[in-house]
Amino acid sequence: MRIVKNNLLCEYENAGGNVNALNNKETNHLVINENKVISSNKTDELDLKVIEEKDGISLNLTVKKDVHVKEPVYLCFGIIEKRKVQNIKINMLFEKNSSAKLLAHCIFPNAVNITHNMDAKIVLKEKSTLSYEEVHYHGDNGVISVNPKAEIFQEEGSTYLNRFSLLKGIAGKVLFYYTAHLGKGAKCELTARVNAIKNDDVKIIEKALLEGSDSNALLNTRIVLSDASKGIVENTIIGLGNNSRGHMDCVEIINGEEAVARAIPLVEVKNKTSKITHEAAIGSVDKTSLNTLMSRGLTQEEAVRVIINGLLR
Amino acid sequence: MTLLEIKSVNFNADNKKVLNDFNLSIKAGEVYCLIGTNGAGKTTLANIIMGVVKAESGVLLFKNVDISRLSITERAKMGITLAWQKPATIEGLSINDYIKLGKKGSTDADVRKAFESVGLEYDEFSARILDDKLSGGERKRIELASVVNMDSKLVILDEPDSGIDMVNMQFIKKFISKLKELGKSVLLITHKEDMILLADKAGILCAGKIIREGEPKKVSDYFKNGCRVCKDFTGENCEK
């Protein structure tokens, strides 16, 4: 059955969502408006159970042993209403040697007072791989509170790749809180990109606990702060396992007179064979890059935009 | 016809006269090589011409227009550009997009042509990001490709030969000849004698002034035999 585009799906398309994929029976998808399932499709590749609750949904997703989901799984969590609270509870289990790519859009285009909470527990069994991308698409005004929280448990040789981006509209009040526990040989990359404007208040907390030997984590954060926005990045990597490796890389650019940026990296090593590095750069747009682009004929404003767009890519 | 004329420019830094009543004239289509020892003020001069820093006094005329108070952007739009000694990296920006930035309406074919002029493979480099994963020599050649894709009249090359190997050096030498073929004026800043021979005219910067100027070979010989052994750096004794 062909999906009829409603307001949410129109906005989903505007946000870069793949509406055509929602019409493909070979593709898994789930579209939620507030606490209602608007559309869904499930193939034999995974188990997907959704329970509609008072203020949101509960989602259980399992990928069975040795199953590799071919096409991306498209998720959309939206609120078209102006005032709402949406609570998303997610339980994901990737059994041994399974893999999938999830592409989630969180869409709040008309927010006057919206709260979106996500609480996820993700278990990646031995040699499984999950790539999870979450794209936020917000309106230009209103009060939005976004609170994605996830705890990821990675067993031996598993890989978790997470990319969170909030680049369209106001960010609102954001508390991004992810914790990954890495077992032996597990690999984790947490990437966050946020463009904060007006009075946005963004807090990114990412923790990687390198519990297993040869585990490896990368925390990569980029925030651009314009107007009177605030950004705090509290990233933590703790090296526990033999030969575990971690690196955190945080850049916050201040592009507003009243904007404030803060980075609090915490690096802790409890094993003499573990090694963790960190780099952070906080401040205005790099002057050398700016001068270079201006010497190619760009105005200062155009040059700043090129640098910022590159950084948030 | 004179393209760039610098008259009586002064610039101080850290209580030192970096440029002291400095004068320089570059003709249209001319390759002018400016040499000098480390710290002579060559990069400062490049920055002053580009507008990155402003001279404390004096006049800069470009195509007979006083550009002394113009911004970097305004100077670039008039036809001046600079290939930096230490080219910037810009996270997330593809090399293809970077090269196109210098000329509105640039196509992939233009980028390909610019790459060819510096001996870079389009398919290998165009989609790559202008970040620190590029080697120093690659980044320098990309900087030159970016410059050649502009409709510039005066190209300032600030030590294009520094920190690069012999292979890259050959490409840079060919590139300078290419700029000349295209009719662009070049201010080539270096402190390597063999680069001087690529120029139509050369000058030695010392103590904030051009202390010797003329035929490249003669200037090169003077630099090699005189400046390299000089302990003075006042520019006074050699002028006598």
Short description:
Chain A is mainly β and 313 residues long. Chain A has helices at residues 7-14, 19-22, 287-294, 300-311, and strands at 29-33, 36-41, 46-53, 56-63, 73-78, 83-94, 99-108, 113-124, 129-138, 143-154, 159-168, 173-182, 187-196, 201-210, 216-226, 230-239, 245-255, 260-263, 266-269, 275-283.
Descriptive key words:
heterodimer; A: about 325 residues; mainly beta; 2 domains; ten-stranded mixed β-sheet; 4 helices; 20 strands; about 10% helix; B: about 240 residues; alpha/beta; Rossmann fold; six-stranded mixed β-sheet; four-stranded antiparallel β-sheet; 10 helices
Low-confidence stretches of chain B: none
Structural class call of chain A reads mainly beta
Q: Which overall shape of chain B is indicated by the principal axes computed on the Cα atoms?
A: globular
Provide the gyration radius of chain B in Å. Answer: 18 Å
- SS elements, strand count of chain A: 20
Distance linking N and C termini of chain B: 31 Å
Indicate the radius of gyration of chain A in whole angstroms: 20 Å
With strands numbered from the N-terminus, the spatial order across the biggest sheet of chain B is 6-7-8-3-9-10
Net shape of chain A: globular
CATH superfamily of chain B: P-loop containing nucleotide triphosphate hydrolases
Q: How much helical structure, as a percent, in the residues of chain A? A: 10-25%
What is the domain total for the residues of chain B? 1
Structural class by SSE content of chain B: alpha/beta
